[in-house]
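In this supplementary section we document a worked example of the pipeline. Step one takes a protein sequence of length 315 as its only input; no multiple sequence alignment statistics are reported here. Step two produces a three-dimensional model, which step three serialises into structure tokens for compact storage. The input and output of this example are shown verbatim.
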Amino acid sequence: MARAPRVGIPLAMPSPPPAPTQIFDRARLAARRQRLAPNFADYGFLRQRVIADLESRLDDTPRRFERGLELGAAGGELSARLITSGKAADMVAADTASAFLEVARARGLESVLADEEDLAFPPASFDLVAAPLTLHWVNDLPGALARIRRSLKPDGLFVGALFGAGTLTELRSVLTDAETELTGGLAPRLSPLPGLRDMAGLLQRAGLALPVADRDTVTVRYADPLRLLADLKGMGERAAFTRGHGRPLPRRVLARALELYRERYAAADGRVPATFEIVHVLGWAPAPGQPQPLKPGSAKVSLADAVRRAQKDES
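The serialised model returned by step three reads:
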């Protein structure tokens, strides 16, 4: 009996992953950094706090780094401090604005024009990557973290800080209520920001080992919320949405939002608070011999026993 011919069934090719949504206009952000560079130091109080914190965290690491990279380096102050302290032998300052890189070069630093979304460094180029207050402007944060990991040598360290979801809760609230009240609608006004748990998960997803994420909540008090808006402009932290993701803020909405800000948040002295949540992140490029987290259920001492022993010691 003749055998029926075999019919091949074409296999569907897997679809490529969808491109990340382009929320932020990176060209606009770069142009903004170029403009604000001459007066950036006048608005750098939060960045100074972050730089000091990152330097302190690196001091706690018993490592001297041979070659590091600072992303969003501005004038390269963190890089210069790490070299001066002897924590790093050499640092590369990277930024999207040439005006900042001129300052870094004046400090004697190697500098390079580089975008956090398109890092073109060869694999295993650095044993340290630092990113002070820059990654919250990245459209593809998982991709950026993965590229950072690839640029690290085995057992290289990534440290960063970015604004988290608890930032400017007061301003978000009054803008939402003012626009809803006056227009009956709502448009994005402030950038979406990741939460602490989001960042811990993203570090693991990027393949970084021993990830750590924690937060530093800073409350700044202003004589008037208009001063807060001026500071955000000087820091380069005003929203920069791509076309179609935002629309101009009507003056009447802004006026009403400022009125609500004063009504809801002013203290007895008339000053108003502004909350900034800074999420600090740390992770290591995988390497043989690194400590590994315990597997679930592998602990030899129960939490209940530990608590009972502590209570016994106190009695």
